Amino acid sequence: MMPIRWKPLLANAATTALLALMPIAPSHAETVDEAVGSLQRDWEVIRYQTPAAAREKRYEALAARAHKVSEEHAGRSEPLVWEGIVLSSLAGEKGGLGALGLAKQAKALYEAAIQIDGNALDGSAYNSLGVLYYKVPGWPIGFGDKAKARELLQKALAINPKGIDPNFFYGEYLLETRSPQEATPYLEAALRAPARPGRTVADSGRREEARELLEKANKGR
């Protein structure tokens, strides 16, 4: 009978125990494009496929995730844009004074994104910041500014002239500033905009919104 070698067995057991306590490294670290793509998909499900009563809580959870993505990819514009979009959407669900605080946070994120790379995501930071400027009340309540909104929305259009979002939001801006005749061609351009890869839900929802606004614009002419 061979003698039992206790030392190697004990050493192996200790090593196994140590390895069990060590954190397991992820097999794949998310790239910024993957992380932002995940935020986009979850946002569009909340925006277009989730009952209104459930949206606020889901946006809150998504905002926490978006902030983590921004921290993990510091120095990149895209996560900041999407964190801002989520916070802006959350503000829209909340309403009231609480919404203004969220809008201010989103504004700071869009401005930071522009400082890094305003052309990222086809100029979405300019577009989203412009939307805030025409939706938020003006002084003394908020920072809203229709002239600033026009400037930013036009800058987004210059970067992405055929895009669905810049055309839709400029059309909405013109409609809200009582220019329905001017709004019509931009809303029509939003309906003609090329499909965005991986954004089927968002494109479908935005086109439906564009059709509704176009009907409103035609009635107001």
Radius of gyration: 24 Å
What does the average pLDDT come to? 89
What is the H/E order?
A: HHHHHHHHHH
Portion of residues within helices = over 70%
Structural commentary:
- This protein is an all-alpha fold.
- It has two domains: 108 residues, Alpha Horseshoe (Serine Threonine Protein Phosphatase 5, Tetratricopeptide repeat), CATH 1.25.40.10; 60 residues.
- 78% of the residues lie in helices and 0% in strands.
- The chain contains ten helices and no strands.
- Helix 6 runs parallel beside helix 8, helix 8 runs antiparallel to helix 9 and helix 9 packs antiparallel against helix 10.
- The protein is globular, with a radius of gyration of 24 Å.
- Keywords: Signal.
